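Q: Hi! New to this. If I give you a protein sequence and the SMILES for magnesium ion, can you show me the bound structure?
A: Yes, paste them in.
Q: Okay, here:
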Amino acid sequence: MSRKIICLFDVDGTITKPRQPISPSIEKFLLETVRKEFDIAVVGGSDLNKIQEQLGTENLFEKYKYIFAENGLIAFKDGKALPSQSIQDMMGEDVLQDFINFVLRYISELNLPFKRGTFVEFRTGMMNISPTGRNCSKKEREQFYEYDSEHHVREKFIQALKKEFPDLALTYSIGGQISFDVFPIGWDKTYCLRHIQGYDEIHFFGDKTAEGGNDHEIYESDLTIGHRVTCPKDTVNQLNVLIALVKENREKELSVPLQCV
Ligand SMILES: [Mg+2]
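A: Thanks. Here is the predicted structure of the protein with magnesium ion bound:
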């Protein structure tokens, strides 16, 4: 019996360029070549809307066995929504408000090259916090990133939060250019693995697998076989290797002569 395999992909930097739509050639490869051999699934940190912007809305749920937005807090199997939890259920309103109030106060006292809007984006399983505000332009985004590399605004912010709320079981993760994510410990991408059942092997492909990166925990998880990729093209290369390997193993199995009793 050949082993049942699912390939699970991070989105940004793994099957798409960061924040860009998937290229037609990559999509064709996943749907026509990879899907012939394995089931395929995606897990992104962003919300479903952003994943749909990148992977398209047309027949999206037919293309991927599982779609996980917000690390799997929002989950679909064969297009059907799976049960979900929220950060407010987990933290409770009082604690959550203390936390958000501190964040807004802290931001109000920061002097930065510029500030725009949307400092706290509240999602199902996480908060995304941006000292400069999420609705800045692409150019401003890059400017802030440069400023932050020099002044470590996000790192200092996280240190201040850890100091103020030492007892909250929260994880902080710097990703992208202008913000960081806050979520309950364990609600990283490994969260989505609880939904995946019935496979002998889960192959995970991600680009931010180093410590502190948002693919680190799932890449290291005992439940997955991790593949570190540098860009969508590298993902294709590594998938070709995996497909060849699986085919080779299958042929070996077939060539074992049946034993007569
Ligand atoms: Mg990524």
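A: The pocket of magnesium ion is lined by residues 10, 12-14, 206-208 (CB under 6 Å). Let me know if you'd like me to explain how to read the tokens.
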